[in-house]
Amino acid sequence: MENHRKYFDSIASEWDSLFSEEERIKEAVDLMNISPYEIILDVGCGTGRLIPHLKKRLKNSGRVFSLDLSLKMLLNAKMKKYSRLAEFVNGCVEHLPFKEKRFSRIICFAVFPHIIDKKMSVREFNRLLQKKGILNIFHLRSREELNEFHKNIGGVLSEDLLPDEDTMRRILENGGFKDIIIVNKPSFYHTQCIKV
Q: Are 195 and 176 in contact (CB under 8 A)?
């Protein structure tokens, strides 16, 4: 975990310049059918790229909490003009610093492969979600594209892989989720499931 923190701290200042896919992020968020009053945890929020897209779908009582392991990523997110739209928390996914049944939805955008203990994290997501709460995991690459990308980067990211469909289903089911839908196609990956 410490190696990941150092890696993401080291690239925080250039993170936004590496990706320019705002329209595709908007389209992915549109697919989630977010209701106006949700309380959302944005796990691995990085520099906060999801925040404006989420807040457009929420009314005043809806809230976004943005969590990241990298303090430098969070500091960059807080410097943006929309930082007042979310609450920022520095922490690790395996031990989330929130009370149980706090959120209606948890979103993991471009982060799930970087989670070291995926089984424990999914159990934590379940703990934090309200009854029938939704977990969304998405990437703007297919599983195969993403895994190849991380292997090619090498270093600390070389083993950060998105599990195959059977493994992912098993992790989610054992973590207390049902109605699992997995979409894996060129340039897009999305898993959605509901807390049992």
A: yes
Give the tens place of pLDDT for each residue, 101-153: 999 999 999 999 999 999 999 999 999 999 999 999 999 999 999 999 999 98
Query: What average pLDDT does this structure show over 84-99?
Result: 88
Report residue 154 as tokens: 């090498």
Domain total in the chain: 1
CATH number at residue 57: 3.40.50.150
Taking the C-alpha atoms of residue 148 and residue 145, their distance in angstroms, rounded to an integer, is: 5
- Cα separation, 179 vs 37, in Å, equals 22
Q: What is the pLDDT of residue 20?
A: 67
Show the domain range for 105: 2-195
Q: Which residues of 92-113 are buried (b: 16+ CB within 10 A; e: fewer)?
A: bbbebeeeeebbbbbbbbbbbb
Q: How far apart are CA 76 and CA 16, in angstroms?
A: 10
Listed in order, strand segments (DSSP E) in 23-75 are 39-43, 63-68
**Window from 16-30, 47-61, 84-98, 151-165 with minimum mean pLDDT:** 16-30
Residue 193, both tokens: 């499931």
